[in-house]
Amino acid sequence: MKLVVKTRRIIMFLSIIGATSIFPGSNVFALGIVSRSCAPAGAQESISVDWGFVPYALWTASSHYRNGFLHTINTVANAGAVGGWEYTWRSRAGHWGEFWYGQVVGYHYKRSGFVYFLGNSFAADCNLAQWGAG
Length: 134
What we know:
This protein has one helix and nine strands, in the order αβββββββββ.
C-alpha cells in the first residue's frame, strides 16, 4: 500500500515538472487577486499575486469605504514603485492599523507591452478564502 502511495506521488511530481518544462513560456500558476477588510489582522488591502513567484509589472489600487468613500491607496505609495508599477510577484496596495473597517474594492492591472485589467476584488471581511484568478 505504501508503494502505491509513493508511486502516485512520484507520478504527480513528474507530471508537474513535465508540464512546466514542455511549456516553459506558459504561466502554470495564475495571477490571483484579493481584497481584505480584516480587523483581526489590522489590514485594509488589495493584493495581486503570482503563485509561482513569477514577477510582472503590476499595479494595484485599493479603495476603502465606510458610510461613504474614505480614500484610495495604490502602489505609487510603495517603495520601489515607478509610476505606480512594480516589477514583482506580489503587488499590495493597503495599510495596517486602520480603525474603520468597511468595504474594500481592489483594482488589479498587469503590464506586458499592453496594460491588462486583471479584475476587481471586493471584501467586507478578511476574505481569506476568496482568492481569484485574473
